[in-house]
Amino acid sequence: MTGxxxxxxxxxxxxxxxxxxxxxxxxxxxxxxxxxxRALNAFITETPERALAMAEAADARxxxxxxxxxxxxxxxxxxLFCTAGVRTTAGSRMLANFVPPYxxxxxxxxxxxxxxxxxxxxxxxxxxxxSNTTSAFGPVVNPWTPxxxxxxxxxxxxxxxxxxxxxxxxxxxxxxxxxxxxxxxPASFCGIVGIKPTYGRxxxxxxxxxxxxxxxAGAFARSVADAALLLRxxxxxxxxxxxxxxxxxxxxxxxxxxxxxxxxxxxxxxxRLDGMPxxxxxxxxxxxxWLRAQGAEIVEVSLPHTRYALPTYxxxxxxxxxxNLARYDGMRYGLRVPGRDLVDTYKKTRAEGxxxxxxxxxxxxxxxxxxxxxxxxxxxxxxxxxxxxEDFEAAFAHCDALLTPTAPSAAFRIGEKSDDPVAMYLxxxxxxxxxxxxxxGISVPAxxxxxxxxxxxxVIGRPWDEATLFEIGLALEExxxxxxxxxxxxxx
Amino acid sequence: xxxxxxxxxxxxxxxxIAIPEDQLDHLASELSGILAWIEQLAExxxxxxxxxxxxxxxxxxxxxxxxxxGGCREAILANAPEREDGYFxxxxxxx
Lengths: 492, 95
Hints:
The complex is a heterodimer. By secondary structure, chain A is α/β, with parallel strands linked by helices. In chain A, 36% of the residues lie in helices and 13% in strands.
């Protein structure tokens, strides 16, 4: 059977349960696709032996009529989740040889549900970036890059390898993490679905920490139903993460289309940016029209502090990062570059182990937390952050969910924006507010730009209301009928 | 707030990152640009606003005071840059 690598999770699950295909066949198809797609640089580490062993075990369970939610389904994992015995780099030289002795809670849940690990995907270093160009393992190529262009397109970031791998058909689904847009923006750039659930929905235990009050794990897939299935397996309370929520995980994978009648969808007027490309604005209007046609009511809402979200983020996130990344001192694990004494060893290790963007953010974070500046920057940002949360609370008094573009542009070329950090940061203008407020957000592919590149629409929900996001996501998916395939899609 | 090279050097020292002399000016201008952009927050009236430290109310719960982990010296040392007799080897701290 050919084309197994193009199967979605739900389709493949049904075929596996009927024993029409085997987990080993499915894993082999994905491993072959990964091999053919190596030019994308989507994976830092491939784990073919482990994949086949896990697939064999899944086949044995399926043969006995057993198996979990994801039994036999191959998954790629962002190389920010610790995987026991499998190198976990965070895209950094600092952890280039780090082999965790323990498993992150999210990935442990996946394996407990029968999923098969294909490999660890490339990412911006320590998940800091919007283009996957800060990885110590080289940039990832967006499979939507037209053939014969001199400079490939970025897949977005930071979860660029996961997004590119799913879009190119190297795997049916992948995990990601999202601190300011790192799942939703690459999903938009690569024409796939990406969901970041409510802060606290997935355990952060065993995920290499970037900014702890913002980081959240989530899922990439080629359909809303597949993303719902993967997220369901990832989510749930974990006593090892004090910020994980002790709430039941709903069966989102049971969500059916046609549920948006009577929902009120808010359009935040402050998201209409000056200079926003006309095609983004048109896509947004079309999305609202699709939902209206399916019976939803469209209302304009206001999020007055939107323009302060990015500056707030670029205080909070670097401050937390500078604290979290203090652990990389070259003593117990990771790179060590010997110096003339202890402090010199620290300094040399951290200068060589961290790339330019990570160093820059640590310096910003250290500066805003340093004596004399703490109140002016960090405390101020925490206060504005509350204003941003209050904006959303006020908006959700008038609507059930918000519809926005996911990103202010389609994918750009590798190297573009890299000389201007602030221009790069502006990529996250529509996504970062969601992290600051701890809300769930989903990006659904909704159309193509004039250059033929995918564009996503984002739906933002109330805390813990991923169910409504999936309902609206399905409605958008059905209306958009997005079937375009990237030029770099791999056939096996 | 404009950051000069002396400030960059001081912050880099606090962050324990070695920065070559010839990169200080470039970093100073980059950080100044980012900080100038961040400073628009001063426009927001935040008088009387409680700083937000956690997006969702976290219910603190007690756990039983039981040993649930440990006895895994080999796993802990497995990634050590340098080790000896079951210990980490680190640079001399006290002269």
